[in-house]
Task: inverse folding
């Protein structure tokens, strides 16, 4: 059985991948076509936009955090039912952690998928030909099935680009003119869920423009590929009475979908709100993912009963995994950009500060005993006054260089700026077993 499946890529970042992806997802939704979106790499923001555009959460496929066979299994599992699979690439087509390692191109090869190439042609015409030629021929294993040009306002401009495509041997699928007020922010830390929802009209306008200027029917046709069935270990089956309580509200919402599914396979998953609830639910594990606690400091600080319940749970050797914003919440205070302190849970004897904001970004590995866990770090805050906080393991980057990031431990609580990936039962068991090691 054949299915339309493709990866959207570009020569570089900020070329229009997200804009075109969202427009295509919404256009397909309006046609009544079911589609499963994916996001190459570790980004949390784009999958939320995917859900806004087509009603399905984007699933992260990351070649640094996930083994290739797990990538294939994950892709096969989530593409069983939908008619179309659309993967939004990351950065430039061949940009990886080291050369092309972990890049969109490598993902295309792992999944054997065609590439739809997005080119910002605002300041070029026929000169796009050598660019297309280079990307087409740099790696013969990559199949660039078609190209869509972004920011092209006239038919004469587009004709130059069509001529370039014909001479290079790549199918032109159309163009998107510059659309005022239709820009989508890229990896904007601080973009709340409410702000994301405001882009409904923008995505509608993108879909309308794509139906007019892009041959979506041809795109769907040239990207038909045979489906590859696999025996999946990812089906949720609730194997035990183990209960995980996951923080989910406006302040805490960055969590890999596969992590939640793994926890559901482990047992029962319930959600709670550190902002709005009075206390944590009864659970064997509390999971505090990242998000935007710095945007809700007063509400979090004033919810003393929630803080007390978490503090007592931690001190009674309750198991907690806290990532980035979740870790900040477990500290003594969060300091806003104006220097004002807001008391938090106080499980850890450190503060985090939004003063002197600096971007900390990159893949991370943590060596704990004989085990290695992988994840990603992306934040602007800093930890201060952590001399009395206990740390475990050694954290390195994608090039195996030791970084300043720490994994903090207090009793059965593990906390770090790292967003961990534990999308398999084995990885989750590793995390849970490490929690008993202190």
Result:
């Amino acid at each position: 059985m054949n299915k339309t499946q493709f990866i959207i890529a570009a020569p570089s970042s900020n070329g229009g991948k997200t804009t075109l992806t969202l427009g295509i997802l919404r256009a397909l939704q309006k046609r009544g076509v079911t589609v499963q979106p994916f996001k190459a790499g570790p980004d949390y923001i784009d999958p939320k936009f995917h859900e806004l555009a087509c009603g399905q959460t984007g699933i992260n496929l990351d070649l640094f955090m996930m083994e290739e066979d797990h990538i294939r299994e994950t892709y096969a599992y989530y593409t069983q039912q939908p008619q179309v699979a659309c993967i939004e690439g990351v950065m430039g087509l061949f940009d990886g952690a080291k050369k092309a390692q972990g890049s969109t191109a490598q993902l295309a090869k792992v999944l054997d998928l065609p590439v739809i190439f997005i080119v910002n042609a605002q300041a070029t015409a026929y000169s796009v030909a050598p660019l297309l030629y280079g990307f087409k021929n740099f790696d013969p294993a990559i199949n660039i099935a078609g190209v869509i040009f972004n920011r092209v306002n006239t038919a004469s401009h587009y004709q130059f680009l069509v001529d370039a495509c014909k001479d290079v041997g790549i199918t032109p699928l159309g163009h998107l003119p510059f659309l005022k007020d239709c820009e989508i922010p890229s990896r904007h830390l601080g973009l709340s869920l409410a702000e994301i929802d405001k882009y409904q009209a923008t995505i509608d306008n993108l879909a309308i423009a794509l139906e007019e200027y892009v041959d979506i029917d041809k795109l769907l046709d040239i990207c038909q590929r045979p489906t590859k069935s696999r025996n999946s270990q990812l089906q949720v089956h609730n194997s035990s009475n183990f209960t995980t309580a996951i923080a989910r509200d406006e302040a805490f919402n960055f969590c890999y979908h596969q992590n939640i599914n793994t926890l559901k396979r482990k047992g029962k998953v319930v959600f709670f709100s550190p902002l709005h609830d009075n206390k944590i639910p009864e659970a064997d594990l509390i999971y505090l993912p990242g998000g935007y606690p710095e945007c809700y400091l007063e509400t979090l600080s004033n919810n003393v009963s929630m803080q007390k319940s978490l503090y007592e749970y931690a001190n009674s050797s309750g198991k907690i995994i806290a990532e980035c914003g979740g870790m900040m919440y477990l500290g003594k205070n969060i300091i806003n950009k104006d220097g004002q302190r807001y008391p938090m849970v106080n499980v850890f004897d450190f503060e985090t500060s939004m003063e002197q904001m600096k971007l900390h970004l990159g893949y991370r590995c943590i060596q704990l005993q004989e085990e290695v866990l992988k994840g990603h770090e992306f934040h602007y805050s800093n930890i201060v006054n952590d001399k009395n906080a206990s740390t475990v393991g050694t954290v390195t980057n994608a090039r195996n260089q030791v970084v300043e990031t720490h994994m903090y431990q207090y009793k059965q609580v593990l906390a770090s700026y790292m967003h961990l990936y534990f999308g398999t039962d084995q990885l989750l068991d590793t995390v849970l077993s490490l929690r008993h090691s202190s």
Notes: The longest strand covers residues 360-368. The chain has a mean pLDDT of 94. The domain at 2-226 is CATH 3.40.50.300 (Rossmann fold).
